[in-house]
Design a protein that fits this description.
Belongs to the TatA/E family. This protein is mainly alpha-helical. The chain has helices spanning 6-21, 26-64. It has two helices and no strands.
Amino acid sequence: MLQSIGIPGLILILIIALIVFGPSKLPEIGRSFGVTLKEFKKGTKDIMADEPSTATTETQKNKEA
């Protein structure tokens, strides 16, 4: 989806955001977005780290039975 936007599309989105939010709010919005993205990635990594241990436990239970 994002691959089809291209550079002109991104520039247009940034100009619209600048008009709507103003230059003083954009750094705050960007910072909040960055923190949210960082927390999302951390949560995803935690979930992915938990899955292999669960799969290993299930495999061990199947071998024992």
